[in-house]
Amino acid sequence: MEYITLNNGVKMPTEGIGTFLLTPDEAESAVVSALHSGATLIDTANAYVNEKAVGRAMKASGLQREEIFLETKLWPSFYKDADAIDKTLARLDTDYIDLLLIHQPAGDYVAGYRQMEKAYKEGKVRAIGLSNFNIKQMEKIFSICEVQPTVLQTEVHPYNQEPELKAYLKAHGMVIQAWYPLGHADKALLNEPLFTSLAAKYDKSNAQIILRWHVQAGNIVIPGSKNPDHIRDNFNIYDFALTDEEMQQIAALNKNKRYYEANAAKLAAYALMVPPVDKQK
Q1: What is d(CA 122, CA 183) in angstroms, rounded to the nearest whole number?
Q2: Strand pairing partners for 99?
Q3: Does the active-site annotation cover 109?
Q4: What's the pLDDT band for 141 if we cut at 50, 70, 90?
Q5: Which of 158, 202, 259, 264 gives a 20 to 30 Å CA spacing to 104?
C-alpha cells in the first residue's frame, strides 16, 4: 500500500474499499475481504445505512483499530444534530473516526462543518473534509473554517479527470478522492483499447490499469465490490508502474464526462431526507 500525507500530517492510504450501495451483510463481508487482502482504508457514510456492519467487520478482521483508516460522511439532515457525530461513533463502535466528510453541500452545511471542527478539536476525528463540493461551495467553507479541510471526495475517473479542480485543491493543500473510480462500470471506459493494450503489457486487468493510473495521478481511490476475487485484484496494483508516456496517453482520454450531476432539486431533497440509521442491523 502507498500513502498520502494530508495537510494536518495524518497519513492516509491511497486505496480502500467503498461500501456505497452495499447492504449491511454485503458491506460486512466486503470489508472483511478487503482487510484480509491488504486494504486498510474503509469508506462508508450515514446515508449508506451500513455503518454498524462496517464496525462489526473491523472487529472480525482481527486487525487492531489503529491499523485501520476509517472514513465516513455526515448526512445533511444531521448537520444541526449536536449528537450526530457521537451517534455515528456509536454505530461504528469506535472511539474515533480517521476522516469525516460533509457528504453533500445541501442544507446548513456550515453548521455541519462546525460540528466536525468541534469533534476534531475534541479528538473524536483525526481529519475532516468535503464530498461532492464544487469550487464555489468550497470557497464558502474556506471563508469560515477554523480547521482546514483535508480531502475532497468527488467523481473522478479517466473520462472525468478534473485537472482544474485538482489544481485548485493543490493550491489549498487538499487531495482528491475518487468515487466511481472505474467510471460507474461503464463498459466503454473499461474496454478502452489503451487499457486493453496496457493490461496485456503488464499482465493485469483493465480495471487494475485504471486503478494504478489513479494512484500515480495522486488520486485516493475507493472502488466498491462485493466479489472477494475482485476485491483482492483491486489491491494487487503495487507491483508495477505506468510510464510517463502511458500516463499522458490516459490523460488524453479525458472527456469531462460525469455519471452523476447535482442540481438544486437534488440538494433540496437531500436536506430533507433522513436515512434510517437507527433501524440498520
Answers
A1: 37
A2: 71
A3: no
A4: very high
A5: 158
Give the Cα separation of 170 and 182 in Å (integer): 23
Number of structural domains the chain divides into? 1
Residues spanned by the domain of 146: 10-272
Give pLDDT tens digits for 155-165: 999 999 999 99
pLDDT tens digits for range 8-23: 999 999 999 999 999 9
Average pLDDT, integer, range 172-200? 97
Q: Per residue in 225-254, pLDDT tens? A: 999 999 999 999 999 999 999 999 999 999
Q: What secondary structure, in 3-state letters, does the chain show?
A: CCEEECCCCCEEECEEEECCCCCHHHHHHHHHHHHHCCCCEEECCHHHCCHHHHHHHHHHCCCCHHHCEEEEEECHHHCCCCCHHHHHHHHHCCCCECEEEECCCCCCHHHHHHHHHHHHHCCCECCEEEECCCHHHHHHHHHHCCCCCCEEEEECECCECCHHHHHHHHHCCCEEEEECCCCCCCHHHHCCHHHHHHHHHHCCCHHHHHHHHHHHCCCEECCECCCHHHHHHHCCCCCCCCCHHHHHHHHCCCCCCCCCCCCHHHHHHHHHCCCCHHHCC
Please indicate, yes or no, if residue 172 is contained in any of the structural domains: yes
Does residue 2 lie in a domain region?
A: no
Considering 3, 48, 109, 168, which one is annotated as catalytic? 48
